[in-house]
Amino acid sequence: MSEHVYYFAYGSNLHPFRLGARIQSSKLLAVTHLEGYSLRFHKRGADLSGKCNAFYTGLEEDRLPGVVYSMEAAEKSLLDGIEGTGYITKSIELDLSGTICTAFAYVAQPSYLDEDLKPYNWYRELVYIGARYHGFSRSYVKRIQEVEAIADHDKERCQANEQLLSCMR
User: Fold this and answer.
1) Residue 63 three-state SS
2) Is 131 left (phi over 0), alpha (psi -120 to 50) or beta?
3) What pLDDT does 114 receive?
């Protein structure tokens, strides 16, 4: 039997179709949240657009909605490669209906933060559709939808992601 790890997804990997296309062994376990964190689109991606970050605020009122997936430990290095440089994997404890689960989450390194960045339209849509899929609060989903986004001028990348989105809608 293979060893499994738990992954807290809060951004573009929220939707099980998206993560499943990347990590075959992924299985959705629970919807939960991370205390003292908020969602920001200020992590500099390899394509120089804004990517999601679990930003630590330490504020009691901040709760970052997300989901926990189980995946084979051997596939974590694959996901690390997909997420790319600029993230560290942070070990976190989450409450799953009274059971404490230790999971990892991707958190941006400070040197990769840029408040002036904007996500591409398709990227913001991945996060939005994932949040809706899991039934996150209307106000939270609306905040994602209202994040200012920009057009992706890489037609191939844009088309590939639009195809992915059409499968998720």
Assistant:
1) strand
2) alpha
3) 98
**C-alpha distances in angstroms, 87 versus 11, 107, 138?**
13, 5, 28
Amino acid at position 55, single letter: F
Q: Using alpha carbons only, what angle is made at residue 139 by residues 133 and 142, rounded to the nearest 5 degrees? A: 70
Burial 60-88 (b: 16+ CB within 10 A, else e): eebbbbbbbbbbbeebbeebeeebeebbe
Residues 6+ apart with CB under 8 A from 30: 67, 68, 96, 97, 101
User: For the segment 62-121, what is each residue's pLDDT rounded down to a tens digit?
Assistant: 999 999 999 999 999 999 999 999 999 999 999 888 899 999 999 999 999 999 999 999
Name the architecture of domain 4-168: Roll (3.10)
By C-alpha distance, which of 116, 124, 53 is closest to 86?
Answer: 53
Amino acid 50 reads G
On the 0-12 / 13-18 / 19+ scale of CB atoms within 10 A, 31 is middle
Residue 57: both structure tokens together: 């605020």
pTM exceeding 0.85: yes
